[in-house]
């Protein structure tokens, strides 16, 4: 791995944004599309990909993060939201659990954008805006009874 590639990995791990990491590591003033493409190419490089995975594993071990811990914390947050009647927070915690367990997958592969909304891979699911308040309340009640 070259020193600039190592800098890229360090910046990517710190920022979570591949384009910005590329810009800083390579002192680049390229256009955003070029930064995105070059950063994406680096993330696909086998050595860099392996180093990013190693750093992520080390961070998980260092912070004792497991899927079970994350799911437990999300369930705790969901229960607090349920008790306080905060449906939005409850749905958010439920979706967080689904993501952690791989039931909802972000379409984004390279994490080069920070705030890209997730793409849900559920067939036949309508956006929340398509449902009435009554339908949403019924769905929340059903979730509450289930959990």
Please give a structural write-up.
- It is a single chain.
- This protein is an all-alpha fold and 147 residues long.
- It folds into two domains: 3-62, Terminase, small subunit, N-terminal DNA-binding domain, HTH motif (Arc Repressor Mutant, subunit A, Orthogonal Bundle); 67-146, no CATH class.
- 66% of the residues lie in helices and 0% in strands.
- It is built from seven helices and no strands.
- The protein has helices at 3-15, 18-25, 32-44, 46-62, 67-84, 87-100, 133-146.
- It is elongated and about 55 Å long.
- The model has no long low-confidence stretch (mean pLDDT 79).
Layout of helices and strands:
Elements: H1 3-15, H2 18-25, H3 32-44, H4 46-62, H5 67-84, H6 87-100, H7 133-146
Helix pairs in contact: 1-2, 1-4, 2-3, 5-6
C-alpha termini separation: 48 Å
Count of alpha/pi helices: 7
Strand proportion, as a percent range, falls in: under 5%
Point out poorly predicted stretches: none
Structural class: mainly alpha
**What integer value in Å does the Rg equal?**
19 Å
Task: Please count the beta strands (DSSP E, at least 2 residues each).
Answer: 0
- Classify the helix fraction into a percent range: 55-70%
What about the largest sheet?
none
Described by the principal axes of the CA atoms, the overall outline is elongated
String of helices and strands: HHHHHHH
Average pLDDT taken over every residue: 79
| Domain module count | 2
């Amino acid at each position: 791995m070259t020193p600039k590639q190592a800098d890229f990995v360090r910046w990517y791990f710190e920022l979570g944004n591949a384009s910005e990491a590329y810009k800083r590591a390579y002192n680049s003033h390229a256009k955003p599309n070029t930064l995105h493409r070059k950063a994406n190419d680096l993330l696909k490089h086998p050595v860099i990909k392996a180093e990013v995975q190693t750093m992520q594993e080390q961070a998980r071990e260092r912070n004792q993060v497991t899927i079970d811990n994350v799911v437990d914390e999300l369930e705790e947050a969901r229960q607090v939201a349920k008790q306080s009647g905060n449906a939005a927070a409850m749905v958010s915690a439920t979706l967080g659990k689904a993501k952690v367990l791989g039931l909802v997958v972000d379409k984004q592969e390279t994490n080069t954008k920070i705030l890209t909304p997730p793409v849900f891979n559920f067939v036949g699911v309508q956006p929340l805006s398509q449902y009435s308040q009554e339908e949403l309340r019924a769905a929340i009640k059903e979730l509450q009874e289930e959990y």
